[in-house]
Amino acid sequence: MAAVTLNTDLLLISPFRKGGLFVFITHWLAWLILHFITFLPSLVNMNISAMWESFLFNHFVLVTINFLLFYIVAFYIMPRMATLQKKWLWLVASSLLLAIIVTYLKFRLQIPFTEYLMNKSPMFNKFSRKPLEESLGFFSYRFRTYFQLNILTNVSVVVVAFAYRLLLLWFQQEKLRKELENQKLQAELSFLKMQVNPHFLFNALNNIYSLSVMEKSTKTGQSVMKLSELMRYVLYEKEDAENRVSLDKEIRHINSYIDLEKLRHPGDVYINFSIEGDTNGKRIVPLLLFPLIENACKHGILTDAQKPVDINLKITDHKLNFSIENSVNSYQKDQVGGIGIPNVQKRLDLIYGKKYTLDLSKTADRFIVNLQLPL
Questions:
Q1: Based on the domain organization, do 106 and 245 belong to the same domain?
Q2: Quick one: which of 161, 199, 274, 283 has the fewest CB in 10 Å?
Q3: What residues make up the domain containing 65?
Q4: Residue 329 confidence (pLDDT) above 50
Q5: Tens-place pLDDT, residues 77-128
Q6: What is the predicted pLDDT for the residue at 10?
């Protein structure tokens, strides 16, 4: 199942950059909607038609100011903290200072608006009222009282801005980390697959060389044809996003390789290849089974009917069971050495992690490989 990823690109676009206006307006509308949902119970019971001015001021003007405070902290102050040595001290100090300034701005808007509503109200018009003469300065008594009641609201907005930015930066770093891990994985897989290709080609050419020396040219031509089909598969078969190809194609080219082995020997070759289950729609990592089959054919005894190479492929809905057995002969390996099984193990580790099992066992006269993979 594919992992669910969060695209944070739109959420991190700053309105101070070109092209960020649309995202800014989208965030602003989302902020207003979230506010209305939060205060929905009180808004339902509110007589908006009679108090529409108060509604617009409290739930539009003041909320928009909160939103601007949030955006300035999240998209202007926080991105600049990386350029300063004492970044966290500067960040906290500047954000708190901005919260205090916004509190005073709200105070200077709230007081005249409250006076306007009181003058407009018939209930308050029955009483004689003196015009407001008390100072509304930054250190006035009225602002100190307003500050004590409202500063926590603005500090909460700053905290939300911190959390928003840090959370999305964490998502962005996780996304980058996974991309780097995936690039590393693809590079390692490509390197391992490049090892398989020349190793397989080297052995196949050795087989054809043996035919050209021992047999008639007709078998050599057939071998070249089989080899060209296999190399076309190795070089040009396209993998999907999960580095997999059709299991049917993999089986078809395994059969081609078995045919190539049969052409190499002058007599009968005893390789039993059985398939159980439905292969339709199943996909597998390409060339994963080839080195195991090649290893068995190279080190087994192919011309003895009592000691055949037995290959079994069993497919269920979500699992592939592959087993191969070959007799152990007394011939020495070539001096170059083999990379087949170690290569397969490395590819399995990179692609499947702990989701596979590979068992290698050896008796007195048989070498057995059992592989289980998820499909």
A1: no
A2: 274
A3: 10-178
A4: yes
A5: 877 765 555 577 777 888 888 888 888 888 888 877 777 776 666 555 555 5
A6: 45
Q: How many residues can be counted in the chain? A: 375
Task: Tell me, yes or no, whether 289 lies in a domain.
Answer: yes
**What does the pLDDT read at residue 250?**
87
**309 lies in some domain:** yes
**Is the same domain home to 17 and 165?**
yes
CATH of the domain at 224: 3.30.565.10
The answer to whether residues 34 and 130 belong to one domain is yes
Residues 232 and 329 in one domain: yes
Residue 277 in any domain: the answer is yes
> 287: part of which helix (H) or strand (E)?
none
Q: List, in sequence order, the alpha helices (H) in 45-139.
A: 52-56, 62-72, 87-120, 122-125
SS3 13: coil
The pLDDT tens digits for 307-327 are 999 999 999 888 999 999 999
CB atoms within 10 A of CB 178: 12
| DSSP H or E run through 364 | none
* CA within 13 Å, CB half, 187: 6
Q: From CA 312, how far away is CA 248, in angstroms rounded? A: 15
Please list, in sequence order, all residues whose beta carbon lies within 8 angstroms of the beta carbon of residue 94, skipping any fewer than 6 positions away: 77
Q: Are residues 161 and 255 in the same domain?
A: no
The answer to whether position 16 is within a domain reads yes
Domain boundary at 125, 155, 178, which?
A: 178
Q: What does the pLDDT average to over 20-39?
A: 80
Tokens of 291: 């080195």
Q: Is the dihedral of CA 26, 31, 34, 40 positive or negative?
A: negative
What is the C-alpha separation between 164 and 167, in angstroms, rounded? 5
- Report the domain count for the chain: 2
pTM check: above 0.85? no
* Rg over CA atoms, the chain: 37
Q: How far apart are the first and last CA of the chain?
A: 11
In 3-state terms, the chain is what percent helix, strand and coil (to 5)? 60, 10, 25
The DSSP result for 295-336, as a single string, is HHHHHS-TT-TTS-EEEEEEE-SSEEEEEEEEE--SPPPPTT
Residues 168, 221 share a domain: no
Rounded to whole angstroms, the maximal C-alpha distance in the chain is 123
CA distance linking residue 242 with residue 245, whole number of Å: 9
Phi/psi for 362 (5° steps) reads -140, 125
